[in-house]
Amino acid sequence: MNIEKMTTEIDLMDDDKLYVVKDGQVIEHELPRYGEVVITRIDGKTVFIDTKTKRKV
What HEC string does 27-42 produce? Predict the structure, then answer.
């Protein structure tokens, strides 16, 4: 992360992560192998990330 330029690098080959930019910060969220992720936004800003995981049997 480059604080001076307010930039960061993201690995585009990593499919197991979700990135949210909020107030100048990058928030990294691990995605579940099976399940769902619900993002709640209020006034154009992400406020909640709800993750429901499932196990495949």
Answer: EEEECCCCEEEEEEEE
> Nearest-CA neighbor of 22 among 52, 49, 4?
49
Q: How does pLDDT run across 8-56, given as a tens digit for each residue? A: 899 999 999 999 988 888 899 999 988 999 999 999 899 999 999 988 8
Give me the count of residues in the chain.
Answer: 57
Among 22, 25, 19, CA closest to 6: 25
* Contact by Cβ (8 Å): 40, 46: yes
- Give this prediction's pTM: 0.73
